[in-house]
Design a protein that fits this description.
Helices cover 26% and strands 39% of the residues. With 220 residues, it is α+β, with helices and mostly antiparallel strands. A hairpin with a 5-residue loop joins strand 8 and strand 9.
Length: 220
């Protein structure tokens, strides 16, 4: 009688009669399939990670990254101002992080300007934009006279050369524009130059009092 009842229960139950089916535990076949899927996913993830790392660290990728033009560094710049002074020289230093510093050979002319400080950003391709400012000072009246702002659109024309178009404006201490115009730049990257030779102690030129010229400056 009990055997017939058990058979009837199994025929009416779509699931096989197994105590583990009612305890919430997956059957052995389900466990094995799940483990295989997890193992396969881990293997594929590790393989893809290794491939990406291999590509990034390959000599070709390293050489390509090193050959890509970079803006960071110090540049020798020749600036030509439309309807302005003759072309003059600047030094621009583009720093990683997007800041820059500028100095030039006419900044001590009236009105005198201090070193420039500013920012730069990449626009796309080989084009960059920058803005820098410096304070102006009148030594005659011993007082500040305003500031100079230069905005530029720069194009790298090679690994170590660039051209730029600038807009400049002089502001008085109240923020009013007193002079503005346009300029162009041509630049070459400053590189490390080797020390070729230095004179020995006997060859060093000396001043009348016996001190060497470096000890008193480059002037006589």
């Amino acid at each position: 009688m009990q055997l017939n009842q058990r058979r009837t229960m199994q025929e009416n139950n779509p699931l096989p009669y197994n105590s583990r089916a009612f305890s919430g535990q997956p059957k052995r076949g389900v466990k094995a399939g799940l483990a295989r899927r997890i193992l396969t996913a881990l293997i594929m993830t590790g393989t893809l990670t290794g491939v990406v790392a291999l590509i990034v660290s390959s000599p070709e990728a390293v050489r390509a990254g090193a050959a890509a033009p970079q803006m960071e560094g110090t540049w020798r710049v020749t600036t030509s101002v439309a309807d302005g002074p003759p072309p003059f020289s600047n030094l621009y230093s583009f720093n990683s992080g997007g800041t820059l510093h500028e100095t030039d050979e006419i900044q001590l002319l009236s009105p005198s300007a201090g070193p420039g400080a500013g920012v730069w950003t990449k626009l796309g391709g080989n084009q960059y934009a920058f803005t820098w400012e410096s304070y102006l000072f009148d030594f005659g009246s011993d007082s500040p006279t305003g500031r100079l702002q230069v905005r530029g659109l720069l194009t790298l024309t090679g690994k170590d050369t660039y051209t730029a178009v600038d807009q400049y404006a002089f502001y008085d201490t109240n923020g009013n524009v007193t002079l503005s115009g346009c300029a162009t730049e041509e630049a070459t990257r400053m590189t490390v130059e080797p020390v070729t030779s230095c004179p020995g102690p006997a060859e060093t030129a000396r001043h009348a009092d016996g001190r060497s010229r470096p000890a008193i400056g480059w002037k006589n």
